[in-house]
Every structure is written in structure tokens, then in C-alpha cells.
Amino acid sequence: MQMENYQPGDNLYMNSEESTLSWIDKPISKHIPKLTIERTLIILIILLAFLSRFYDLGARVMSHDEVNHVVPSWDLASGKGYIQDPITHGPLQFHLIALSYFMFGDSDFTSRIPAALFSVTAIILILLLFKRYLGKYGHIIGGLIFLISPYLLFYGRYTRNEGLIELIAVLMIYATLRYLDKGDKLSLLLLTIAHALNFAAKETAYIYMAILLLFLALQFLSEVIRENWGSQKSRNLFVYMTIITLVLLLSGIILGYVNAKQNPTNETGELLNQSAANIGLFASLTVLLAILAGFVTIFLLVKGIGLGAIRHLRTFDLLILNGTIVLPLLAAFPIIIIGSLFGQDWKPTDYSTLGMIRIGVSLAILGAISILVGFWWNRKVWLKNLAVFWAIFVVFYTTFFTNGRGFFTGIVGSLGYWLEQQAVNRGTQPMYYYALLQMPFYEYLSIIGFLVAIIFALFNLRRIGIPVEVPISPVLSPKESSTESTDQEDASIDIKSSLAEIQTQNENNAQFEDTPLENSDVAETENEAAQEEEFSRDHYRVPVFFLLLFFSLMNLIAYSLAGEKMPWLTVHIAMPFALTAAWGFDKLIEKISWKEFSQNKRWMSLILLPILITSLIGFLGSVLGEIPPFQGNTLEQLQSTSTFIISGVALIFSFYGFIYYLRGYAYGQMLRILFLAFVGLVTILTVRTSFMASFINYDNAKEFLVYAHADRGPKEILEQVEEISERTVGGKNINVAYDNDSLYPYWWYFRDYPNKHWYTDTPTRDLLNSPVILASDQNYSKIDSLVKDNYIKYDYIRLVWPMQDYYYLTWERIKYALTDPSMRSALFQIWLNKDYTKYAEIKGRSDLTVSSWSPSDSIRMYIRKNIIGEIWEYGSIPEVVSEPFVDPYEGKIQSLLPDRVIGFYGKEEGQLDAPRGIAIAEDGSIYVADSRNHRIQHFADDGTLINSWGSFADILSGEAPEGTFNEPWGIAIGPDGSVYVTDTWNHRVQKFTADGEFLTMWGYFGTAENPDGFWGPRGIVVDQDNRVYITDTGNKRIAIFDSDGNFITQFGEAGFDFGQLDEPVGLALGENGEVYVADTWNQRIQVFMPNEDKTVFSAVNSWEIVGWYGQSLDNKPFMTTDNQGNVYTTDPEGFRVLGFEPNGQFLLGWGEYSPSSDGFGLPAALAFDQNNGVWVTDAGNSVILHFTLP
Length: 1190
Known about the structure:
The protein is α+β, with helices and mostly antiparallel strands and 1190 residues long. The protein is globular, with a radius of gyration of 34 Å. Mean pLDDT is 84; it is low at 1-19, 472-538 and 873-883.
């Protein structure tokens, strides 16, 4: 096929009407002919981008993760230097924030300027450079979606790397498409810069590079298969070897992933569980076999079509350049693989002498391979790009050559740390976290456009790329010198031509003036081997859609499988989805015959569209709503019926009018107009969702696009501290003290307070010198006991997490959510308005309001009373209404020391980490739930270890086989000696023999919709009839089963009335069959008495506990009874044990805070032995203490 009439810029979607200006190319006024509608839209979107990213940028409280970024940046800006740490990702963000501080001063606002600026620039790039690739309308749509995307807006105003990567990823995609389109050097340079910035920003660069290389490899394979092969047999053999290579490589990756999941670590890298199977070794061997198979595949390819046919392909150029750039950065892999082959746990983050030698050898080998391949490919081009990449990389990682160690932490440590973290399931989010929660809740517009793009592509598979003319020879014929002399000129022309794409639609048909990539190093014989035939216009097309689709799907899969699943990572999924959606919506608009639509008053149908769509929504809402129509005569039922009738009538008439005005218009065109109107409605909803997330709910937990998020409280405290300091000592010279948890965000907010005092979690009497003390909830009791009545207390919420009821979805829960009208309506309100009122009513929860949100962490501000008197006007102080506190236990708290101590902190057998539940066997031996070691330990009463069993497994991450635990809290012994354990965060109960042999288990994560649906079960006791009583803490009930796990009955419900429960934990059985329950958050012990057959339990008594104040995850009291029927309970954050008579009369108590055995660090559970001595587990100090009571 001859190509003289073919223009490289030809586009499939241009038609005969384009000889005249389309509406988007028309000027908005005859007086301003150059200001077209397109340009006006671009200017408007850019202005809105600046406004949306920068407006009120400093209002939000600096969140937990932001603090980790701004404090080192402030140190750098203050001249203290910067040392790169893989834990906080790459150095790029720190340098940009430090520059912002240098230019504009340090504040919350200036901390977020780099993210905001990069986010705006990403939108500008799409508007100015993507018209050729997204279509006539696609670049406008893409810019609009990026502008209003809830995730891209929120994290474009957030001090994280994701805001920076918005721009970097867009630049990388553009440079890739541009090179596949034009084959010029500027494209390679832009791509290299994008990679360098990406690797300097965050370890997600490895995912981007892997996806890009995989796409290029698949595209390359599809191209070489279409080349002329010597024989069909050689082509088939190449295909088979390619499949084998890919299968081996994929198998190695899967085995590596399984190995990481079966050998989980904590965030410090400590191994939590060692798998018996050496999967890591098999993974390494499989990868090595894949590499060998890859070499064979390459040999078959070269032999089959020759180097010339390979080297003319632009995908080959990109594979070589990208591959050789990233190769030295993969030095961590040989260390891990070779270590596993030798049975050694070699870590790339090992910076010992031997570790550095391994790093050096790995770097040298991979670097040498990279140099050889690069020189063979195109020496001069490769060296230029290599110099640009490593200049950017080294400058940032070494902080302008002031931190030499940064080079090694960047080149090996970052990937090594990231690989180690894949065994850490941060946030414990489910695998469907992105696909079923984050994307549908926020990026629904992009999802719709993504599906539109797929549908269009399926009907146009052969013609969805941009056809381009690829040079027949693999290299340019001009001499190197002539090309070099015009490099700058070419770059200038490239930029100008790219910007000019927005001027006229006819630019799409312009001839390329870019100089293709030159390679003077190719041997003359290879030139002769190049194919002589010309290529048809269908032979090569820029795969715009396939690139965007591939990035979208692979990012979704990669981040869903990764160990860390956090909200901000949704940004990496949302970006390619948004670009794919823009491409799809462009094709939808192009498919509409606008000229025909403008005839015969068809435009009148647009007036009816809002009525048609809103009436349809109202009609469906009344049918699917909580109260269906025609159900009764109550006000709500009549309102639903009237809504159904009115919306139905409006729907019929508006639909008739719509059809009437579009008569003669093709049905397909009608459907496209209707769907486009629906997209317009969804766009409005997206704007609303985005606005609510970034400007209304930005300081609370109603939104799911944040995780550990600072509440408004810390800034309110800061404002008061600043005022107190100014009015008492002047400036910021006040002595203010804060603990470990308060370090976030006050590490940042107190950065320039010279008299700040960080007391970690070990307060001393020196704190009394501080007029203001800040404490998190776990330290309330310590500070209360220290300051007594000399300070006034004010409580705030410090940190919040989103509601987490989406964990452990089952088909039963999904079916219930979709079929139950009330639940469906409640979930719709959460999706649309972030309104949890109906959901809270259904679930019986009172902790889903902003002021009472759970999960959350609180913070308390203590202000010394004499300071309040000093600062208040006219010497008066704010009225604090409180009755004099009378401690009912005063005079009966004794000073007792333990007579026996078992264990100390550690991971080995016999050592303990946060022991919780405890049970005493008939022989006096002790079973203890060693919670954070995820095991049960069995001791003799003299402390000798008898046995231990259990290992870590998290059912959320997949399998949690029998005998594995995720923080067991409760333990009990049955009459036959069987051991029962509440496997708290696997939400189940397990039963063992006295020797630890597994017998049975029951339970799953649920909200008690079924009897064995548990939510964090803790306390457990067994009566003489082998009935197992379990506190289902999260579901606010007591569940009773037989010894085989068959449900018998339950009692209790959420609430604070007599007989209702709020966070029940401890359980104890009385002598007469009564059940004592630690009703923790109601701060009382309740007594329930069964009927004759023990199927119904009724509350008969209760008494208040002056304690149990905090609502932290550790403040969970257990209970027991002694041999006389008296009831004893722990007050964990009061650091004491309290004893009562069966009727609630206080007997005695003992304990105070101590980091040693002369007090308690966090008393958890207790149990009496046959001599009426009591064993107490101390979760804070990781010991078991025995006391002999007076």
C-alpha cells in the first residue's frame, strides 16, 4: 500500500464536517477571534485548578503522616541537613517543601504548596499536551476530571508524595505516547526526567516502571509477531518460549507474594511467623529459570527476524532505555534471590560491612550489564539520558552531595525496605478495599468513563490507535553531527508544536517535523538486514487506549495485592482511570451527530433532560427506598406513594417529550444523548463529593479517603497554648509538655517552642513545672494521679479513623445490604451525604457522630489552675461546675507486692509480650494468652514453661489455619481440662486439649446477624455444664455455646440502660449461677441471673466502677471470682485491682503505676488459685504476678 497520500497525524475520528469549524473551535466573540471556546474552557479549568488547590490550604490540621514529612523538611530549611530514610520514602518532597519554607516561610499552608502546584501542573499538561492522544474533547474532559476528582483534589492539598506523582505520572504517560508517536529525542528526555523524579519521590516508582516495562514488552511482542519470520515454525517456537518465560516469571512473582504473606513481619521488620515451607527458595529458582528462558526467547527472536527488524521498533527503544536505567536500582533482588538460594536471610537494608560488600557487588554487576546494553543500543543518546537520570537521582538522595549514605539508601535501601514491607499488612485492609470501597465511593465518574472506553474499544478493536509512519530502517540516515547540531532546535520545535495543538483542529493532520532517533552505532550489515517493504497505515498504531487501560487495571491489581493498602494509594489508581475515562467520553461525544441534533428543534429535548433524569431518580428512589409505595396510611407511607405517583407521571411525560423532539433521530443517537446527560449528572455529583471531602469533612472521619487522620482538636489546643503563652510569658516561651502519641502533630506545631518537653510515656514529677500538659488517653490515669486537683482538664479528639464495617464482607452481608430496604437506604445516605444517622440506628450504634466517633484517639489538655487565674480578664476564671470528688475506695487501697513473678518481655518461648487472659488448671498450672506473640503459653506455678502453641495468622489476609492466632485475649478451662481461647482479631473461638492439640473452632467476623458472627471477642468462661460464655465485645452481647460451638442463647444489647451493654469485656461466674459482666464503657459491673433452664438471662443488679475511664484498645478489664464468691476486676489504666463482695460492696484494692514489678504497667486479667492467691497478667510490663491477699 502506498503512503504518499497518508498524513501521519490522520485520526480515525475526523469526518467530512471538519472542513468547517466545530463549536469548540469557534471564537467566543467576533471581537476576540483567537479566544475560542476550547481556549476559554482551558483557561477556566486552569483558574479553577489554582483556586481549588490553593484556597484555604492551611486550614486542615497537619495529619499524622504529614508530620513525618514536614518536620524533616523544616530541619532541612533550617540548615540542619537531611538524611534520607526509606521509611519516609524518597527525598524529592522534603527538598521541595524546604524550598517552599525558604521562599514563603514555614506554615501549614506553605507545607502543602508543592503538592498543590504539582497537581495544578498535571492538569495544565493534560489540557495542553494530550489533545492528540485523548481526542478533540478528551484533553478538556481529562483536565476536568483531574480538576474535580475527589482523590486528586484531596491529595493535591496534602503533604504526601501522591500530589507530586500526579504530575510525574502524567508526564511519564505523555512522554511514552509521544515517543511511540514521533520517535524523537525530546520524548526520551521527558521520560527520563519523569522516571528520575518518580524514583526520587516514592518507591511506587518501581510499580510504575514494572507496569510500563510489562506493557512495552507485550506491545513489542505483538509487533514482532507481525514481522516477516523465516518460517512459521520459528515464529511458533518463539511464541511458545515467550509463554513459558511469562508463566515462569509470573509464577515466581506469585510465589514471592505467597512467601511474604506466609512469613509476615511487623513494621520494624521482625518476623511474626516462619512458614515451614521454603517458598522463598522456590520463588528464587523460578525467577532464575524465567531469566534463562528469557535469554532463549531473545535468541529465537533475533534468529527468526534479525536485529534490523527488531531495532526499527520504537517499543524496543523504550524497553532498552527504561530497562537499562532501572537495572542498577534492582540491586536488591540479586541479594535476596542469591541469599535464599544459599538458605540465608540476606537483607538489602543490611548496612554492615558484609552487607555493603553484597550491595557493591550487586551494583557493579547490574551496572556493567546496563552500560554494555546501553552502549550497544545507542551510545550517545543513552549516555545523555543516563546523565540526566543520575544527576537528578544523586542530587536529591545525597541532598546536594551533603549525605553520601543517601546514595546507597536510595539505590538499594528504598527497594529493599519496600520489599520487606510487603509482608506487613498496614491498615489490615481487605483485598477489595480499592475495587469495592474507594473507587466506587469517590471515583465513580472515572469508572463510568472507563467502562465507556472499553465498550467503544470492543467495537473498534482494529482502529483505536493513532496510525503513524515508522521508519523502515532501524536508524536515521543523517549523520550524528547534523542531528546533534539541531538538538536544541528540535526541542524548541517539539514544545511549540505541542502547545500549538490547542489552536486548530487541523493541526492533527500536520506532518511531523521532529527528527527521529538516530543510532550511528549500528553495524552496516544490520542496516542491510532491515526490511525493504513499506508499512501500511494499519501496521503501526500508537496504542493510546491499551496503554491507559493497561495502567488502570495493573495499578488496581498491584495495589490490591500489595501489603500496604492505604487510602492515598488510590491516587495511583484514579489517575489512569481518569485518563481512560477522558478517552472514552471523547469517543462518546464524537459518536453523536451534533449537526443532525441541531436540526428540527431537537435541542429542545435538552430542556426536558433534567426533568427526565430527576423524575427517574425519584421514581427509582421510591421503589427501592426504605418505605415502598402503597404500603399504608402513615405520613411516611403516603409521602412515598405520592412521590412514586408524581415522579412516575413526570417520567412518562418527560420521556414522551424527549422522544417527540428527537423524532427521526436514530435510536442509538438518542441513547447517547441520554447517557451523556446521565454523565453530566454524575459529574455534578462528583463535584459535590469532592467539595465535601476537601472543604467540609476535611477534619473528621466521615470520609473514607483518609486513614489515621487528625481531628480538629489539636489545632484548637494549639490556639489556646499560643494565647496562654503570649499572655503569660510572651511569645512561644511557655513550658508545654506532651507525650508519645501527642508527638503527632505537636512535633510540628511545637517546632519553635524552646521550652517544650516531650515526656514520652513515662511522666515524672518534673511535669508539674509545665503549666500546660498534653496527654493521650493511654496516659490519662498516670497524669491524673500526678496532677490531682491542681489542673483543669479539657478533652478533645486527636485522631480518627473511618468507620470499618466494610471489613470481612461475606455474600450474606452483601445480599442483606442490597435486599434490605432500610440498610440499602442507610448505605446510600453514607455514599451520597456521608450521613451515618440511619446506619447507626440500624446497628444500634452511638459512636458515629463527629463528637463521639469511634474508632478514635482522644487527647487531654491539662491547664494549671493558677495560670487560668492569671490570663482571664479581671482575674475571673471560667466557671467549672463540678462536685467535690469523693473516692469510694479511699482507705481500702492497700500496698501489696508480688511474691512470685513469671516472665519478662520477649519473643522466645517463656517470654511474654502483652499477656492478657489467664486461667488456672486443677493442678495449679497456669495458661496465659500471650497476645502480641500470638500464642498460648502453659507454665507451672513456679514459672517453668510446660508448653506453648500458636503462631500469627490474619484471616483478613487470607488463610488463618487452626491453631493460629491474631492477638488472643481470653482463655478459659472447661471441666474436662479443655482450653478455650478467644482469638480476638480473627473473630473466633478455638478449643484445644490441655496439651494444646486443636479440637474445634467457631466464629467469623460479623455484626451478630448470625449467632456466631463475632466482632473482637474477649472474655470467656466455662461453667460446670460445659457451657461456654463469650463477651462479643464489638457486638455488645454475651453469647453462650455448648462445648462443640453450637449456639445456645445470648443476652445483652447495645445501650446504657439496666441490662444493656457498651463494650463488655470481662466475665465471671458466681456460686449461684449468676454471671458478672464488666460493662466497660458504662463503667459498671452488671449481674445477670439465668432462668431455670439457663436460656434466658435477666439483669438483677449492677454497681458503678470508679475507674475504666479511657476508651482505648488497651483499657479492657477482665474479671474473676475467688473461692468465697467475691468479685475481682482489673482497672487497666488505673493500674490497680479492685475487689467487691457479690452484692457490690467494695472490699479492697491494690496497685499503682510502675514500670517494674512493684506496681502495674497495665493490669489485664486475673485468676485465683486453690490457695486463694491471685495471679495477675501485666500487659504493660509483660509479666505475670502472684499476690497473696491479706
